[in-house]
Structures are given as structure tokens and as C-alpha cells.
Amino acid sequence: MAAPPAQPQFMxxxxxxxHPDESRIDDIEYDQIVVPDNKSWKNLFAxxxxxxxxxxxxxxxxxxxxxxxxxxxxxxGLLWIILLASCAALIIQSLAANxxxxxxxHLAEHCRKEYPRVPxxxxxxxxxxxxxxCDIPEVIGTAFALNMLFNIPLWCGVLITGLSTLVLLLLxxxxxxxxxxxxxxxxxxxxxxxxxxxxxxxxxxxxxxxGLFVPQLKGSGATKLxxxxxxxxxxxxxxxxxxxLVLSRKIxxxxxxxxxxxxxxxxxxxxxxxxAFFINVSxxxxxxxxxxSPNLNSKELESCKNLxxxxxxxLLKNVLGSWSSKLFAIALLASGQSSTITGxxxxxxxxxxxxxxxxxxxxxxxxxxxxxxxxMGLYANSFSIAATTWIISFLIMGINIYYLAEKxxxxxxxxxxxxxxxxxxGLLGFFAMLVYLASIAYLVIRKNQEGSHLIALSDRQEENxxxxxxxxxxxxxxxxxxxxxx
Length: 486
Known about the structure:
Blueprint: E1 33-34, H1 44-47, H2 50-55, H3 61-74, H4 79-103, H5 107-114, H6 117-150, H7 154-169, H8 176-201, H9 205-213, H10 220-233, H11 236-245, E2 249-250, H12 255-291, H13 298-305, H14 309-320, H15 322-350, H16 359-370, H17 373-376, H18 383-413, H19 419-445, H20 470-473
Parallel strand pairs: 1-2
């Protein structure tokens, strides 16, 4: 008597797609970079790229302006905020990458399938506002840089920036790798310029290290600036962008292949964010060293009190020399141009589905999706990772809510409205804050409805077992004849 086979020849599955237009990972059409199906550190180079597009948001002109003010007003005392924010950013960005790698869908797609029509529309609208709010200072910063370098009027610089962004985005027509290389070169240009600035400014290294590792907040002004630094470091559109960029790689769909992709993306993101961290530290250190120099005249001291991108060029030129001003302009040009490209790039993915205000509406779905076993299977966040990320998220959200409330109170206190007008605006703002908090509570409390279209692999399955493919799942298996059983 011939015994029946212990295991089936093929892995089969019931098609559990809840949407008729939902496709499996192997059916997704992208201009993908194929990662070799072998275990090697050489595979790391195939994953390099998305992290550099993402890190641009951490070194855009808006960040530069906040860094300049932090250094000018508090020297190196707020550097620890940059270190803390960079560590939090690495954890959060890694979750965004993991979501795309494991499920084959980016964050905007998950939101579209998870939430009803009205919440989806609100999430889309807020995400678009966030991207526009990011692009405005980036375009203006690039226009400032063109004015510093070539004396081009600001309005012409804005038009040139918009046109050049559209032209450079055409690089993606020749493959995503070309765009990634171009952005990586711009990031290295920014780094080179500010490292050279450090050579001119010569900040005290022991004071810089103390500022990095000894937390301190001297006065309410330092608290406000620290909140600005933290808010400028974690961008909501970056979560949508990172979860989508990882889909440009066609990875081996096995347990080991997915684990390798998650690990290498974390290493790649860590390196890119480390470069961004050093650039931010350099900007603050240069500003702190220049504005605390004993050789400043009264006009230069006045510039340090309210240091912006335009004043920084004047200050660096007078204190460190004209070459320093040119280096700053080149770095600002590279920063503004690259960040407008990535901001516009992120908008393409958001179309499928005030920054601190919108952050919870991207961050909460990301944390819930990556902690959900129905979506992530054995790649769902562990308890320690989930607890850590939720603590970080609630701290960021709490700081942002405090900042919004404090801004409202300060604006009303210094407004020239009548008592009736102040009371009306105050009540309107209070009602808006309640709606805002209720919306956040809805996202936190609501249970996930949609599972992943993939079968989650269990820990007991072997490393070399691949996820089921549509062509194999639909294949007609050979029928066992009754005569074979006797």
C-alpha cells in the first residue's frame, strides 16, 4: 500500500483579498531593483538609496533656520535635542520601511483600505497641507541661496526652483536609482559645505560634547526652541514617503529575505540619518561659535538675536569671510532643491489615499499597522518596540499639542482685538482643539479592520519557505488515484 505524501507539493491558499482591485506583491508593477536571493553583505548596496531621500527632510532650509536660531541664542545647549530627535526618527522611519517591505503596500494605501471614506478624505487633506507647508520654506530657502550666489531676485528664484524641481523629477523616468544617486550627491555636498564651515568657525569641542550629552533648558525661550527643533525633525510626509520608496526593490519573498531587507533598510536609514545628524550639529555649532565670538560689533550682535537664512549669510561673510558665505549659500541651494524634490515625490504617494498638527494622523496609523499581527504576521512590532514607539509618539504629540495651545494663547494675548473678539476666537480655538484631540483618540482607539492580503508566516515554518505566488496558488494539482492507496 503506497502511503499518501506527508505534505502537499505546493503551498496553496484561499484567496482572501477583500478588495477586487487588490494585488499580490508579485503582481505589483514598479521599476524595481532586483535584490539577489542570497545571504551576503554585498546585498546592502542594493538597498542604499531610500534613506537618503528620506534624510533630506531632516536637513531642509526650515531645519537650518531653527538650527541657526538655536545656536545663536543658546550656543551648544540644545544639541542634545538633535541627538534625541535623531534616535526617535530612526525608530519611526524603520517602522515605515518595515510596513512597505512586509506588506508590499505603502502607508497611504493602507490608510485608504483601512478607514472609511470621510476619515480617509480628512487624512488625505491634512497630508497635502503638510507637504505644502514643507515645500514653502524649502522653495524660499532655495530662492535665498540663488540670490546669495547670483543676485537673482527672490521672485525669480521661486520660479526657477519650481521649474528645476519638475525637470529634476524627470530623473525618475530613467529609473529610481538615478534620482537616489543625485539626492545622495546633494546630501554629501551639504555635509561637505558645513564641515568646511566648522573648520572656519572652530567651535570648542568639549562644549559641543557637553551640549550633546548633558540635557539643559535655560528659560522658556529655550523650551520653545527645543519644541521647534523636535517638531522640525519628524516630518509626517516622510512616513508616507519611506514606506513607498522601499517598494522600489524586489526582494526575495522568504522569511530570511524579508528579515534581511528590514535589517539592511535600518542600517541604510541609520547611515543616512547619521549624516543628517552631523549636518544639524554642524549648523548649530557654527552658529553658536559665530554668535558668541568676542569680536562681534553691535550690528552683528543684533543679527544674532533674530537669525534667519538671509542674516546668516551676512553674518558668516563678515565674521568668517566671503568663502564661508558662499559655502553656506551652496549648502542652502542643495538643501532647498533636494527637499523640494522629495516633498513633491512624497505627494505622489499621498494622492493615493501645519506639520506638527498633521503628524499624529500619519504616525498613529503607522504604529497601529506595524503592531498588527493580521497585517505584519511574525514581523509585527514586539512588545518592547511597540511600547517604546508609543511612548515616543505620545511625547511628540504632547509637545506638539502644547506648542499649538501655547501659540494660540500667545497670539490672543498680544492681539489688538476687542474683549468680545478675543473671547470668540478663544472659544473657537478651544473647540478646534477638542475636535483635534477627538480625531487623535478615534485613530488610537479604533481597531484595525483590514488584514494583510499576504499569509503571515509562523515561527515554525522553515526559513527557506517562500510566500505563495498567485501562479502557484491557482495551479491544478495532480489528483491522487484511489488505486495508489491500496
